[in-house]
Amino acid sequence: MVRVGILGATGYTGLELVRLLSAHPQAKVKMIVSSTSAGEALTAQAPGLLGHCELALEAMDIAQIKARCDVVFTALPHGASGPAIRALHEAGVPLIDLSADLRYRDAEVYAAWYGVANAVADLLPSAVYGLPEVYREQIKDCDLIANPGCYTTCSILSLRPLLAAGLIEPSPIIIDAKSGVTGAGKKPSETTHFCETDGSFNAYGVTKHRHTSEIEQELSLAAGREILCSFTPHLLPVKRGILSTIYATPKAGAQEIGDCLCAAYANEPFVRVVETLPELKHVVGSNCLHIGFAYDARVGRLVLVSALDNLIKGASGQAIQNMNLRFDLPETAGLDMPAWTL
Amino acid sequence: MVRVGILGATGYTGLELVRLLSAHPQAKVKMIVSSTSAGEALTAQAPGLLGHCELALEAMDIAQIKARCDVVFTALPHGASGPAIRALHEAGVPLIDLSADLRYRDAEVYAAWYGVANAVADLLPSAVYGLPEVYREQIKDCDLIANPGCYTTCSILSLRPLLAAGLIEPSPIIIDAKSGVTGAGKKPSETTHFCETDGSFNAYGVTKHRHTSEIEQELSLAAGREILCSFTPHLLPVKRGILSTIYATPKAGAQEIGDCLCAAYANEPFVRVVETLPELKHVVGSNCLHIGFAYDARVGRLVLVSALDNLIKGASGQAIQNMNLRFDLPETAGLDMPAWTL
Amino acid sequence: MVRVGILGATGYTGLELVRLLSAHPQAKVKMIVSSTSAGEALTAQAPGLLGHCELALEAMDIAQIKARCDVVFTALPHGASGPAIRALHEAGVPLIDLSADLRYRDAEVYAAWYGVANAVADLLPSAVYGLPEVYREQIKDCDLIANPGCYTTCSILSLRPLLAAGLIEPSPIIIDAKSGVTGAGKKPSETTHFCETDGSFNAYGVTKHRHTSEIEQELSLAAGREILCSFTPHLLPVKRGILSTIYATPKAGAQEIGDCLCAAYANEPFVRVVETLPELKHVVGSNCLHIGFAYDARVGRLVLVSALDNLIKGASGQAIQNMNLRFDLPETAGLDMPAWTL
Amino acid sequence: MVRVGILGATGYTGLELVRLLSAHPQAKVKMIVSSTSAGEALTAQAPGLLGHCELALEAMDIAQIKARCDVVFTALPHGASGPAIRALHEAGVPLIDLSADLRYRDAEVYAAWYGVANAVADLLPSAVYGLPEVYREQIKDCDLIANPGCYTTCSILSLRPLLAAGLIEPSPIIIDAKSGVTGAGKKPSETTHFCETDGSFNAYGVTKHRHTSEIEQELSLAAGREILCSFTPHLLPVKRGILSTIYATPKAGAQEIGDCLCAAYANEPFVRVVETLPELKHVVGSNCLHIGFAYDARVGRLVLVSALDNLIKGASGQAIQNMNLRFDLPETAGLDMPAWTL
Asked: Which residues contact D267 (CB under 8 A, 6 or more apart)?
């Protein structure tokens, strides 16, 4: 049994980790940390976990974590995560970080898009970008795993094989992405107020969203040249799920493009290339990414549509997948559930 | 491994059976039957099940069912279920019926509330009402299990211990129940049209809903006298979940009422008496029923609030619980998941 | 043209006043006050009002109000409203208060249910309860109009004629009410977070909600004896609307009850006794209250169902109706719009 | 008073016409026609119209229409509309058609995208495309007004001034559009089932949606050369509203682009160029189109965001605007309401 600690257990990705791990056959949550609710039972905040996690929240205590946990998920905001990463790493505790703080190869890019210096810039060379479909082998040996962003997982996995194979032009690449409200986190705000969101819809962070830089980093590596994207996120009046509609100029026919995607993911447990275009309800509740496409010969354009659950494959599920790899467990352990469908 | 067949696999309770059974460690779906979609892959209708159920839908064939299944769930509309029940029973196949056709002790009551004669009236004496918290021992030995209705499970389990102990007056009993739209089934209609339901709310079947009679049957048995209820269902603009607000006149104090409920369910894996009043999000996704209450000494009234997921504890989950009992599996097998919370 | 001022113009009832008054033929908003956003254009917060209200928000200034406004709507939280009421009243400005601060005949009842002393207890004898269907004549001559609560308008108008005529028993009276989230106001909180509300449903304030006392005050006056109610509010995952399901014991037949309600509201422009039971979509967007009922002879119970838009007939629309009465305008001026239906 | 007839009055655009016209100061609905519900009161289907339209639905009868109506709105499905158009036109009744049957300059384009021959191909030269911002003068004199599609109004008005002024490249033009469910009409289907739509999101008609051809027709005319678009519609889990995110390559700077849009719509009552990007809640309930944009110098791209209410500016409101023009009424009569905001 892998003994798990979670920092930031009361946030949405933290709660989702607890929920998913309650069904994991080879891992068990042993310590849950919250800076604001120490002493309280987690089920007081989330009665849906009654009978599945009877732990009390605790204050941060590195010695305790080291004594009781084999691995820690840091589910803290970017910036806040840095100091926790350093403390855990210095204590020798392997960690999977769900913030952006370890995701960049170049601390300058982080600084430019996040507007603050990266507090763990010196650790970046030791970190791995925790996208199993790309960095599976490196993840197995790494103690600093940077769990990718939700939008970015969806975008990178859709485009990477085609750019790597040179089947689409490097520009323009336009990613029109739509996310559920859990992506905005648990903290109440005008943005997340039911009455401001229900029945409405909007774009946000247009031309400026931070995930742009993370997508560009990974796509550039795949293409072997600099890739710039238009990335436009939107807020959907749903709780969970991301659906991205991606536009590119094809350099090959529909058959070749389909073959490339199918080949790339033929052995992947959580990525499916589907014939009917993905919908949120096909993936929400599961750790799966669905990718489909339409080929518009009339106007010379490839339209990719991909979807995932932002809290699972886009965050906590992928983090557990990384844990499974790191601890040599079956990669699908605790993650092999179908979508909820309804 | 218990080999499972499902009649009506493309309906909402049928799909939910497939989804839940995909995670069951000791049962496996072997045959899925649909009168309208035979030949088609189930995943064509429900891509969220890709990788979890690769069976094709088949036409009804009793010989095939008998050869390949140890148990059948009949997830058909009332009336349509009767002939299937008879055929399976005559073939010696144990069955769990999700319709109303086997739920009544008295076929006349069924006829009065459903407006048609009960086609399996002769089988009623051999059937058991599949509410494990009440009829657990009988279920273990029965081949005709009548899975209770969604509203009724919620209402009966909330009131039964108090009526049996004489802690509330037998009248008035008022059950104001609110259900998600999956309770109306998969068939498109004006009632289930998104634009007619989203942002709206309404009562329906007021004074006439069929589940009234099922609730009264079981509560009368518990009380040892005839119990009549006001039962008012409402349609909530959500997919899943039932929350019932129940009003009764207490004959005892708050402490005694709480003790009675706690004692009744102390050893039940799926019924929790909670201190904070239940909300849909505390139970949706799980097989749990939550029961809470407020005691209004000022006006002399007990207000019970209970909640469950209508597709799980209110239908398919409870049906699997019955299967587990009937086949001597752990009662919680395949059902021990927390609520989704988000 | 009646010149209107609004205190608390950025809250939900304030915004709704601005929206509705933009279509009023004989009133015009001249001054909008906000303690937190003075100096800002209202349309910066509500771009949907572009072209309809180009005023900037101002700080509270009694002299300015007196100079520029014939009437003021105070749309402030209870408690905060008291001082504003006093200042306006002393300045001789007629006001319509949307808080609870002027609603009670007995300041002790307010203190008991709100947990604070009533800061304008001395003004209560001069105030009128602004329910036009009951106090129309008094409203015409009053400068301190206490606009009723949303739940209470719905409950009182449904029950009042029947209690006054002695057609229902004084007890039990059970009001099971369900409201949209705008009822919780604009301030972000866990309760109003989209992800905590969408797909969920819950009761709140059970046995303790403040509107209970307001309902009991008015029903007791109508019945000529003390009336106590069970009042249970619930939070619906919709933006607007209240639907109440009300249970009472009839002392007369269905015909007599229907006749009584129809007679009570035959000449009312905004109350309709309907044959098909009300649904939120029949009233949301309008200033109408719909009342329907089912008579359950089997169990001896009357089930009333009534519905209104909590921001219109339950707050801002009713406030404008009161203004129309006070200023001798046609009672329906600016309020005669159909429900949105979709 | 303009006397109005409506064919297809029970559909969503028909009901919206009735609702909006109930507040029109210079037009009155005199006849409502339904092929399926003749004889029934419209309020039986839409109780929200009680007190605002007490007409009974009638069967189609050209003589009656001619006698009682000055203008007819044909709110029928494409194909079904053709015969009605011909009959009304031959009878000399001016009409505003909400289907696609009169929208094309070239009947072959209609046939290619709709898969059926255009039954009124001979009338197309006499028809005007009823987009007031473009064809205002022609509309005033025409008896065959083709009301534009919902997606197309939003797309054409966003792009037309920029293409006409040569400020964007003619290719690529990518329109990623998202619509509420009323756009799919009133007929119940799996697509519009609450449980299939709520909490989900999907693209549909990718590369093949019929509105593509209508958009291309009008943009080509504006640009003076053939324009081809990628148009991808999506289904939002909301009732009303369309938001389009449009990507193009700029040939000028941000200032020049903003100036061009502002100049184009400076005198338009229903089109606003806004600084904060549009959201559905800014326009739903109004007849307004909001257009905003972000200029991404980093990647050389213009991102336009535009939003309207698909049932109002995208259908019935625009149809009334056309009627106002045709009958020399103030263009904003009956249409000058703010967005609902909540």
From this structure: none
Amino acid in the structure at residue D113: W
For an interface test with A, the pick among C181, C191, C194 (most A C-beta atoms closer than 10 Å) comes out as C194
Among B122, B45, B125, B111, which residue's Cα sits nearest to residue B78?
B111
DSSP state of C122: G
Q: Which residues 6+ apart lie within 8 Å of C322 measured at CB?
A: C96, C130, C132, C139, C145, C147
Q: φ, ψ for residue D102 (rounded to 5)?
A: -115, 10
pLDDT band at C167 (very low <50, low <70, confident <90, very high): very high
CA distance C190 to chain A (A): 6
Give the orientation angle of helix A150-164 with respect to helix A211-223, to 10 degrees: 20
If you average pLDDT over residues C254-277, what whole number do you get?
A: 98
Question: Contacts of residue A49 in chain B, CB cutoff 8 Å?
Answer: 338-339, 341
pLDDT per position as a tens digit, B88-146: 999 999 999 999 999 999 999 999 999 999 999 999 999 999 999 999 999 999 999 99
Mean pLDDT of D96-121: 97
Contact A16 B342 (CB under 8 A): yes
Tokens describing residue C310: 């909590």
Torsion angle defined by CA atoms of residues B66, B69, B74 and B79, in that order, rounded to the nearest 10 degrees = 0
| Residue A120 token pair | 């763990």
- Do residues B69 and B82 make contact, with C-beta atoms less than 8 angstroms apart? no
Q: What percent of chain C has pLDDT over 70?
A: 100
- In chain A, the residue whose alpha carbon lies closest to the alpha carbon of C194 is A194
What is the predicted ipTM?
A: 0.97
Q: Which helix (H) or strand (E) holds B97?
A: strand B95-97
Q: SS3 sequence, C184-240?
A: HCCCCCCCCEHHHHCCCCEECCCCCCCHHHHHHHHHHHHHCCCCCCEEEEEECCCCC
- Is the Cβ of C186 closer than 8 Å to some Cβ of chain A? yes
For D212, the token pair is: 């593509």
Which residues, in sequence order, are CB contacts of A95 under 8 Å at separation 6+?
Answer: A71, A72, A73, A74, A85, A88, A89, A143, A144, A145
Q: Would you kindly state where each structural domain of chain A is located, as residue ranges? A: 2-126, 150-310
Using a CB-CB cut-off of 8 Å, the residues of chain C touching B240 are 199
The beta-carbon neighbor of D202 closest among A202, A280, A299 is A280
> Is the previous residue joined to D172 through a cis bond, with omega within 30 degrees of 0?
yes
Q: Is A78 on the interface with B (CB under 8 A)?
A: no
Start-end of H helices in chain C: 12-21, 42-45, 62-68, 81-90, 107-114, 132-140, 150-164, 194-197, 211-223, 254-265, 280-283, 317-326
Distances D187 to A148, B191, D192 between C-alpha atoms, Å: 42, 11, 8
Six-digit token pair at B34? Answer: 């649909």
Instruction: Please say whether the dihedral angle defined by the alpha carbons of residues A188, A190, A195 and A200, taken in this order, is positive or negative.
Output: negative
Residues in C closer than 8 angstroms to B299, CB to CB, are 171-172, 228-230
Q: Is D150 a catalytic site residue?
A: yes
- A50/D contact by beta carbon, under 8 A: no
Please tell me the pTM assigned to this model. 0.98
What mean pLDDT comes out for the span D214-233?
Answer: 98
- Give the fold, CATH level 3, of A2-126: Rossmann fold (3.40.50)
Cβ-based neighbours of B103, under 8 Å, separated by 6 or more: B110, B127, B129, B146, B148, B149, B214, B217
Say yes or no: D199 contacts chain C, CB-CB below 8 A: yes
| A264-282 per-position pLDDT tens digit | 999 999 999 999 999 999 9
Kindly determine whether residue B182 and residue D195, on different chains, have CB atoms separated by under 8 Å. yes
Of residues C188, C192, C175, the one with CA closest to residue C233:
C175
CA B234 to CA B180: how far, in whole Å? Answer: 9
What is the rounded distance in angstroms from the CA atom of residue B247 to the CA atom of residue D99? 52
Query: Which superfamily, per CATH, for D150-310?
Result: Dihydrodipicolinate Reductase; domain 2 (3.30.360.10)
| Strands across the sheet containing A71-74 | A57-58, A27-33, A2-7, A71-74, A95-97, A144-146, A128-129
